[in-house]
Amino acid sequence: MISNVISSTPDILGGTPVFQGTRVPVGTLIDYLEEGDSIDLFLYDFPSVTREQVLSVLETAKQRVLNIATA
């Protein structure tokens, strides 16, 4: 479930969505991917984020896009 992976509270980066248990914004993962960087590089640069968290975020995004496309 995505709520176990992403959190957003006003006292952490002003409410910016971050990976649960970290101060790493989810948007940073998207920035890395847009630049052509790998998930492995992202995980190396942000060791507090797990591969499972990254894959969960990407799977959720994929499902939401597919749901929009078929609606």
How would you characterize this protein structure?
The protein is globular. It has helices at residues 26-34, 39-45, 51-70; strands at 6-7, 18-19. The two termini are 22 Å apart. With 71 residues, the chain is mainly alpha-helical. 51% of the residues lie in helices and 6% in strands. The protein has three helices and two strands. It has a two-stranded antiparallel sheet with strand order 1-2. The chain has a single domain (2-56), classed as Arc Repressor Mutant, subunit A (Orthogonal Bundle).
Outline of the structure:
This protein has 71 residues and is mainly α. The protein has a single domain (2-56), classed as Orthogonal Bundle (Arc Repressor Mutant, subunit A), CATH 1.10.10.10. The protein contains three helices and two strands; from the N terminus they run E-E-H-H-H.
Question: How is the largest sheet built, in terms of strand order?
Answer: 1-2
CATH homology superfamily: Winged helix-like DNA-binding domain superfamily/Winged helix DNA-binding domain
Helix/strand-derived category reads mainly alpha
Figure out the total of helices.
Answer: 3
> What is the number of strand segments?
2
Distance between the termini: 22 Å
CATH architecture verdict: Orthogonal Bundle
Low-confidence parts: none
Rg over CA atoms: 13 Å
The CATH topology comes to Arc Repressor Mutant, subunit A
How many domains make up the 3D coordinates? 1
Task: Give the helix level as a range of percent.
Answer: 40-55%
Biggest sheet, open or closed, and with what strands and sense? 2 strands, antiparallel
What's the CATH C level? Mainly Alpha
